[in-house]
Automatic annotation (TrEMBL):
It comes from Ensete ventricosum (Abyssinian banana). Its main location: membrane. Belongs to the peptidase M28 family. M28B subfamily. InterPro entries: PA_dom_sf, Peptidase_M28, Peptidase_M28B, TFR-like_dimer_dom, TFR-like_dimer_dom_sf. This is glutamate carboxypeptidase II.
C-alpha cells in the first residue's frame, strides 16, 4: 500500500521526455486558443458542492479528489510503519519521505536543521513497598498496548531524574479545588508521591502545582486507558528549545551558535523540580487499592475500578520510584515545499503540520502529514496546468512539536523579521483526523473565509451535505469557531510571538489512544477514518483556504468579526470586575476599532471594482492588503506578558494560570488571578495596568487598519 518513491528518469530518457513535454505544451496551447477559459475546465467533481463562485484553478484543485483517499492512505501507511520520535534515526526516514514527495509533486524543497535540547528516558523503576520498607511487589512501567516495545517507553519529556521512597496520596485531577478538598480531609501531600489522573490541564502545570505543595514525585494515569499509556512533555514557560530562548537553535551539536548553559536559571525554570512518570491505569489502581487514610470523595472514584472503602492516603504502603533522564542535543529537521508567488513573491501564505510522533503517529500528527502531501500533489497539478499563485505558498513539515513546538518555534525565531513583515496567514493542521465531527479554530478576521470554504466542501460522512451544514447542525445553528489561546500546537510561535493570523483544523474531539501505542494505522482504518474521506475533506479545506489567501487580489480578511468578539470579551470582563468602570478604556478602544473597520470595509468595496488598468491600481491594492495583514501585529506588546516575554499577543496568548476560565486577554486574566490570591491595592492596579495594555494594543490595530500614525 505504501506509495513507492517515484523513479528518477534515466538520462537516456531525458530527450524523449523533453519531446513529450513540448508536444503536450503544444496541444495545451492549441486547446487554450480554442476555449474561452484560461484553464482546462475540471471534470465535475462527484463529491464536492457546487463551486460556482470559485475561479478555474480553485475548481481544478477540488476536482482532484477522486482517488485522493487511496493516496492519502498510502502516505499514512508509509509514515506509520515505525515510531518516529524526534531526534531518533527513524525520524530521519519520515523527514526524507516527506521531502521526496514534496519534490515529486513539483515543489521547490528546503530543509532546516537544528540541534535543540531534547529529553529521553534512560531508565526507570517502580515498586510498592510494605510500611516497613519490604518489597510488596514491583510495578510495571511498560505499556500493555505495545508488547513488542517498539515505541519509546512511556515517559515525560524534561522530567528531571530523581528517586523517591514515600507514601502515596491520590489527588484526583490535581487541580486547586482538589487540593482544597484534601485540606478539608486533613491530608497534606508534603513529602509524598502523588497519584493523579489526567484531566487537570497541561501535565507540566499539574506537576508544578504538586511540587509547590511539597510532593516529591508524580505518577500520572488516564482513566479507562484500555492498555495505552500517555507520553507527553512537561516543558514549562512557553514553547521552543530551552537552551536558545528567543533565537534559533544552532544547526550543529557543537560550535557554530549560542546556547545557554543547562544550569542557568533561565533554563532551569523550564523544567519541573520533581520527577513525574505516566503509568497505566491498572498500575495506578494497584497503588490506590493499598491506600488508607480518609475515604475518597465519591466523585474521585468516578469511572475508576475502585471500591467504596478506598482511601486517599497517605500510605500506609510506600512507593519506590526512580527515574533517570537522558537529556541531550539531538538533530531535528523542518522540511519545506515552496511555490513562489508570481505577483507578490514576498507575501507568504504558510501551511504547516508537524511530523514527529511519540509512537506511530497515525492520528498525531501524520493524518495531517498525509493530508499535507495531498495538498502538495494537488498544488503540483495546478502548477503543471500553468497556474502560479499570486503570493508565495510555503508548506511546512515541523519536527519536535511533541517536546514543546520546538521545530516551528526555532524557525519562527530565525525568521522573525521576515515573518512579521511578510506573513499573511499561518494555517495549521496537527491531528487531521482523530474521530468524527469538524472542528476549527481561527483568529476572528478569518471566520468569514472559513465559513465560505466549509460551504464548498462535501461532508465526508453524509452524502449531499457540506462540511458547513454538518458543522452548523452539530453546534445548534452556530458554527463554533474556537480561539487559539492554547500553546499546544505549531500555531503558537506564529500567533503568540509573531502576530500572524492563524487557523487550526481537525476532525474529532478527542481520542483514547492519544500519545500511546494505539495511535497506529490499524486504529485509523478500524475506527478513525476507514475510507479516508475525512482526511480528504481536511486536505480540501486546508488547500482551498491556502489558495484563497494566496490568490485573492484583496485579502479575504473580515475584521468586523474581530471587533464583535472583542466587544463580547469586554462584556464578560465587566461581569468579573467592579461593575465595569475600569473596563472603560477597553470599550472605548473597541469602539474606535469598529469605526476603523467600517471605513476599511468601504474602502475595500471600492477596491474590488478598481480596474487593473487604472494608474497604480496594483499598488493601491497591495497597500490596502498590507494594512489588513499587519493589523494583527498591533495586538503584540514588545515586552510581552509578565514573566513570559515571548508570548506577546495581548488577546490570544495562553494565560499563566492553566485553570483560568478566561481564554482571552491573558495579561488581564493573570492579573485577576494574582489579585484573587493576594488581595491588596497593588494587585488591583496590576489589573488596571493590564486593561490599559490591551486597550492600547487595540488602538494600534485600529490605526494600522486606517493606515495612519497615532
Ligand atoms: C528502590 O528501587 C531501587 C531501584 O530499583 C532499588 O535500588 C532500591 O533498593 C529500592 N529500595 C527498596 C527499599 O526496595
Ligand atoms: C476510497 O473511497 C472509495 C469510495 O468511497 C472506497 O471504495 C475505497 O475503499 C476508499 N479507499 C480507501 C483506501 O479507503
Amino acid at each position: 500500500m505504501a506509495p513507492s518513491l517515484p523513479p528518477k528518469p534515466p538520462h537516456a530518457h531525458r530527450a524523449a521526455l523533453a519531446f513529450l513535454s513540448l508536444a503536450l505544451l503544444f496541444f495545451f496551447l492549441l486547446y487554450l486558443s480554442l476555449t474561452p477559459s484560461p484553464l482546462p475546465s475540471p471534470p465535475p467533481s462527484s463529491r464536492n458542492a457546487p463551486a460556482d463562485s470559485l475561479s478555474d484553478p480553485h475548481r481544478l484543485f477540488l476536482s482532484l479528489s477522486p482517488g485522493a483517499n487511496a493516496s492519502i492512505a498510502g502516505h499514512l501507511r508509509a509514515l506509520t510503519l515505525r515510531p518516529h520520535l524526534a531526534g531518533t534515526p527513524s525520524a530521519a526516514h519520515a523527514a526524507s519521505y516527506v521531502l521526496v514527495h514534496l519534490r515529486s509533486a513539483g515543489l521547490r524543497t528546503l530543509v532546516a536543521d537544528y540541534y535543540p535540547l531534547l529529553s529521553y528516558p534512560a531508565s526507570a523503576s517502580l515498586a510498592l513497598l510494605r510500611p516497613d520498607g519490604a518489597l510488596l511487589r514491583p510495578l510495571s512501567l511498560a505499556e500493555p498496548a505495545d508488547p513488542e516495545a517498539a515505541a519509546v517507553p512511556p515517559y515525560h519529556a524534561y522530567s528531571p531524574s530523581g528517586a523517591a521512597m514515600a507514601p502515596g496520596v491520590y489527588i484526583n485531577y490535581g487541580r486547586e479545588e482538589d487540593y482544597r478538598a484534601l485540606d478539608r480531609l486533613g491530608v497534606d501531600v508534603k513529602g509524598c508521591v502523588v497519584i493523579v489522573r489526567r484531566g487537570g490541564g497541561y501535565r507540566g502545570a499539574v506537576v508544578v502545582r504538586a511540587a509547590a505543595r511539597g510532593a516529591v514525585a508524580v505518577l500520572m494515569f488516564k482513566a479507562a486507558d484500555r492498555g495505552g499509556v500517555e507520553r507527553g512533555t512537561v516543558l514549562l514557560g512557553g514553547v521552543g528549545d530551552p537552551l536558545t530562548p528567543g533565537w534559533a537553535a544552532p544547526a550543529a551539536d557543537e560550535g557554530g551558535g549560542e546556547r545557554l548553559d543547562a544550569d542557568e536559571e533561565e533554563v532551569r525554570r523550564r523544567f519541573p523540580k520533581i520527577p513525574s512518570m505516566p503509568v497505566a491505569e491498572a498500575v495506578a489502581m494497584e497503588i490506590l487499592r493499598t491506600l488508607g487514610g480518609p475515604p475518597m470523595p465519591p466523585a474521585w472514584r468516578d469511572k475508576l475500578p475502585l471500591v467504596e472503602e478506598s482511601g486517599v492516603g497517605p500510605g500506609p504502603t510506600l512507593i519506590n520510584l526512580t527515574y533517570q533522564e537522558d537529556k541531550k542535543l539531538a538533530k531535528i529537521q523542518n522540511v519545506f515545499g515552496v511555490i513562489r508567488g508570481s505577483e507578490e513573491p514576498d507575501r507568504y501564505v504558510i501551511l504547516g503540520n508537524h511530523r514527529d510522533a511519540w509512537t506511530f503517529g497515525a492520528v498525531d500528527p501524520n493524518s495531517g502529514t498525509a493530508a499535507l502531501l495531498d495538498v502538495a500533489r494537488r498544488y503540483g497539478s495546478l502548477l503543471r496546468s500553468g497556474w502560479r499563485p499570486r503570493r508565495t505558498i510555503i508548506l511546512c513539515s515541523w519536527d519536535a512539536e511533541e517536546f514543546g513546538m520546538i521545530g516551528s518555534t526555532e524557525w519562527v525565531e530565525q525568521n522573525l523579521g521576515k515573518l512579521t513583515s511578510k506573513a499573511v496567514t499561518y494555517l495549521n493542521v496537527d491531528c487531521a483526523v482523530q474521530g468524527d465531527g469538524f472542528f476549527a479554530g481561527a483568529t476572528p478576521q478569518l471566520d468569514k473565509l472559513l465559513l465560505q470554504v466549509t460551504k464548498q466542501i462535501q461532508d465526508p460522512d453524509l452524502e449531499g451535505r457540506t462540511v458547513y451544514d454538518s458543522w452548523v447542525a452539530s453546534n445548534e445553528g452556530i458554527s463554533k469557531i474556537e480561539r487559539l489561546a492554547r500553546a499546544d500546537s505549531d500555531f503558537s510561535a506564529f500567533l503568540h510571538h509573531a502576530g500572524v493570523p492563524s487557523v487550526d483544523l481537525y476532525y474529532g474531539e478527542a481520542f483514547a489512544g492519544y500519545h500511546t501505542a494505539f495511535d497506529s494505522y490499524k486504529w485509523m482504518i478500524e475506527h478513525g477514518d476507514p475510507s479516508f474521506h475525512r482526511h480528504v475533506a481536511i486536505a480540501e479545506l486546508w488547500g482551498l483556504l491556502g489558495l484563497r489567501l494566496a490568490d485573492d487580489p484583496v485579502l479575504p480578511f473580515d475584521y468586523l468579526s474581530y471587533s464583535s468578539q472583542l466587544h463580547e470579551y469586554a462584556a464578560t470582563l465587566i461581569t468579573l470586575l467592579d461593575g465595569g468602570r475600569s473596563v472603560h478604556p477597553l470599550n472605548a478602544s473597541v469602539d474606535e476599532l469598529t469605526a476603523a473597520i467600517r471605513e476599511v470595509l468601504e474602502e475595500g468595496k471600492k477596491l474590488q471594482v478598481v480596474e487593473t488598468s487604472e494608474e497604480f491600481a496594483a499598488l493601491r491594492i497591495r497597500a490596502f492588503n498590507d494594512r489588513l495583514m499587519l493589523a494583527e501585529r498591533g495586538f503584540l506588546e514588545a515586552e510581552g506578558l509578565r514573566g513570559k516575554q515571548r508570548f506577546k499577543h495581548m488577546v490570544y496568548s495562553p494565560p499563566e494560570d492553566s485553570e483560568s476560565k478566561m481564554l482571552f486577554f491573558p495579561g488581564i486574566a493573570d492579573a485577576i488571578s494574582r489579585a484573587g490570591k493576594h488581595a491588596g491595592k497593588g494587585t488591583q492596579l496590576g489589573v488596571h495596568h493590564e486593561i490599559w495594555r490591551v486597550a492600547r494594543a487595540i488602538r494600534r490595530v485600529a490605526a494600522t487598519l486606517r493606515g495612519e500614525l497615532i
